Every structure is written in structure tokens, then in C-alpha cells.
Amino acid sequence: MNKKIKVFLKNPLLGIPYAWDVFMIVLNRGLYFCSIKTGRRTKMQTHFRCYNYGKKKQVKIGYHCKLNCLILCEENGRVELGNHVSIGKNTLIECTNNIKIGSCTRISQNVVIRDNNSHPIQISKRKKQSLKGIADINESDSKPVIIEDDVWIGWGATITKGVRIGRGSIVAERALVTKDVPEYCIVGGVPANVIRKLSENERK
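Above: the chain's sequence. Below: its structure in C-alpha cell form.
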């Protein structure tokens, strides 16, 4: 057993309620609380992982969130989640620039949210990475992604770089969002287009 873990197990702090639970989360889930800032009563569920390669303040999570996703925040990235945000299993949030998700937003399972191209467009740069055997997403183009309050993103949707999703809108399952979405509307398809506006009653 790791020496640091042995020392921790002998620590009297484990007698404090929930201290053991916190330790098991750190041990089993790859989550390091020193690397992110979280609000009270936020629940990190079984499949939650957060890898923040920057400073603590670069990943901020509000209160009363329910998270079961993977967050990858590169050295110069910034991820901010509002309050009462719910994100399902196998969803990926990959940030090299800035991703902001508003309060009371619900994101289903298997969703991909990226503020970058994952790989560079230029052939010479891709070739260089292939020869090295290393893919560096920091070399790809990036633009901020903004998801406003009260948005609902369906199963398997993909949100690409530079997109802003307006307040109260719904993204249908498997949609590919490549451009801004107006507030209070439903979008779907590949690429996603507006299907209809929400009625006044649906906006309440």
C-alpha cells in the first residue's frame, strides 16, 4: 500500500462523519479536491472524473450540482458550472479555452462538449503529432462555449467550439450543434437547426 495512504488511514480525521467517504472518492475516482472549487451539497457520482491541469480557480462548480461526467481542463482552460446543474454518465467536457454552463441546466448521458477541434486542422501539425505518437489538443483551434441557464441537452448530442446556447433552449438527442442557438427554442439534426420556438406557457 502507498505510504501516504497508510499515513492517511491512521489519521484521526477519519473519525469525522463523511471523512472516509471523501477519502474513498479521492482514492477510487481520480478526483482531487485541491484542483477544483466546488459549492456546497454538490454530489460527485460514481463515474465522475475531473482532471484539471491548471490552477484550482480554473474549474468552478456551483452548489447543489449532480455530476457523473468527465471534465478535462487544460492548463489555460477555464470551466465554470452554475448552481443546480445535472450532468449524466459518459458525458465529456473538454476545455482548452473557456466553457461556461449556466444554472439549472440539465445535460444527459453521452454528450460531448468541446471548445476545441481536438486535433489541429493543418496537415503538417497533424503529421508531426502522428510521428510523435502524441495528440496535443492545445495545438488545435479553440473558441469559448457558453450554455446559458435552464438549457436541456439530450442524449448523445455534440456541442462544438464557439457555440452559444440561449437560455431555456432544448437540444434534441444526437444533435450536432455547430452554430449559436437562440433562447427558448428546440434544435435538432445534423447539423442542428431550429425546429420550433417554445410557447409562452412552455417558458414558465
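The helical segments are 3-9, 19-29, 123-132.
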